[in-house]
Design a protein that fits this description.
The protein is mainly alpha-helical and 316 residues long. It is built from 15 helices and two strands. It has helices spanning 9-12, 35-64, 74-77, 85-116, 122-134, 137-154, 160-166, 174-197, 201-210, 215-226, 228-244, 247-252, 257-265, 269-293, 297-302, and strands at residues 65-66, 70-71. Helix 8 (174-197) packs antiparallel against helix 11 (228-244), helix 9 (201-210) crosses helix 10 (215-226) and helix 11 packs antiparallel against helix 14 (269-293).
Length: 316
């Protein structure tokens, strides 16, 4: 038999018929951005960069340029030797670490338990965690002050009297950790809730339990690795909150880093601006470390795709 040769589409179409519509481009081909879109994108990025960088540059120039003396870095060289700088910075970092640990210890087991055992309680837990956004910090610190004054007066003959004194220790005020934990609960809840929604928690727990894993093993080795990005996000927001909080610490009479910056701003303006710039750099560095801790290197290297299992076929 003779081989049949395919005919062109134009030869098959009858005379006078309209031309065939153009075929769409294959999916693999990417469209190049229009020049106008690239110009607008560059303009928006330039405006955003100027909005953030111009104040920082102006602040840096203010700290290094002294009229009549020229360029000097005395504000930065005297910073490390300033009275209270190291103590206040270490205190804020310690408060941030304790607040992150306490908020995660409270939120992670509660949200996992609600997700697995009692999904109907989720609205109740959400409302309780969102209440600190409704209560202003000044009202919160007023309530804390009232309790701290009431306790030693009425519990002076009980062992709780020493507890009220211990939580107000100036070296490490535990009362600030408790207050910051309350303030951080809404942000921790939102971050963890988004992570739990993206993971099939009941299926993972059932599979791990069917393999004989204990509950601590399920939480530590199965669920927490899948919530790594959410945990890093919650720690990210809590750290930023604690390092920048001023109202509660100032009204309670403690001096973490933010309060110390304000306390020296009146007498040494250049040093206070230098401390602010340094605090921004420290905060950005810590937040960068937390954001990098939330990424999974193996998933990024493999593109998130797991290799397909090999199957063997028997020839009959």
């Amino acid at each position: 038999m003779a081989a049949m040769t395919p005919t062109a589409p134009d030869e098959r179409a009858p005379a006078g018929s309209p031309p065939a519509p153009a075929q769409p481009a294959p999916r693999g081909t990417a469209r190049r951005p229009r020049p106008r879109a690239r110009v607008w994108r560059g303009a928006v990025l330039a405006l955003a960069g100027g909005y953030f960088l111009v104040p920082l540059i102006a602040s840096f120039v203010f700290t290094v340029h002294v009229p009549g003396q020229g360029i000097t870095f005395d504000a930065y060289t005297e910073l490390l030797a300033a009275d209270g700088f190291t103590e206040s910075l270490l205190l804020s970092l310690g408060l941030a670490a304790a607040t992150i640990a306490l908020s995660l210890l409270l939120a992670v087991p509660a949200l996992i338990a609600v997700r697995i055992g009692s999904p109907r309680l989720r609205p109740v837990v959400e409302v309780m965690c969102m209440l600190p956004l409704v209560v202003p910090p000044i009202a919160l610190v007023t309530g804390i002050t009232t309790v701290l004054r009431w306790g030693p007066e009425h519990l002076s003959r009980t062992p709780l009297y020493q507890t009220f004194l211990a939580v107000q220790n100036e070296d490490f005020p535990v009362v600030l950790v408790l207050a910051y934990t309350v303030l951080a609960l809404p942000f921790v809840y939102r971050s963890l809730d988004a992570g739990l929604r993206a993971v099939d928690v009941p299926t993972l727990v059932e599979a791990a339990r069917s393999c004989g894993a204990s509950w601590p093993h399920v939480i530590l080795r199965v669920l927490l690795p899948n919530l790594r990005a959410s945990l890093a996000g919650a720690a990210f927001l809590t750290l930023a909150l604690v390092l920048g909080e001023f109202t509660i610490a100032s009204l309670l009479g403690f001096q973490p880093f933010a309060v110390w910056i304000v306390s020296i701003s009146g007498a040494q303006a250049r040093m206070s601006v230098a401390v602010s710039i340094l605090s921004l750099l420290i905060t950005w560095l810590l937040l960068l470390v937390l954001s990098r801790a939330g990424t999974h290197p193996t998933a990024a290297a493999t593109g998130g795709a797991a290799p397909a299992p090999a199957t063997s076929h028997k020839e009959s």
